[in-house]
Amino acid sequence: MFTLAAYSDDNIFPLSANLCLGLDAMFKSIKSYMPKRLYFRAALILVFPVVFLQLIVSIVFIQRHFEGVTVQMTRTVAAELDLISEIIEQEGAVAAQKIARSLGMSMSIVAQD
Fold this sequence. Notes:
73% of the residues lie in helices and 0% in strands.
């Protein structure tokens, strides 16, 4: 719960003081994991941004790649199904079964009532 206090000499910005205390606690907990020696700190400063940037670029590249592959595969399956439906209309179901088998699809003929 936040309360706004009237301005006084000892507590001008109570909300920002609480925020600073929270950040200090967070930085103290992170500081225990940070390297103590200068060489390792410099290595961390140089390596972390490169690894982070490479990770982001890789994620974006892989996501775009899979989106493109998915679109291509969807178009190919739609074109194959369109071809089979045209062959069924023109030459019959037996010829469509041969084409479907050559495309690696399985097709069965179902009698209509």
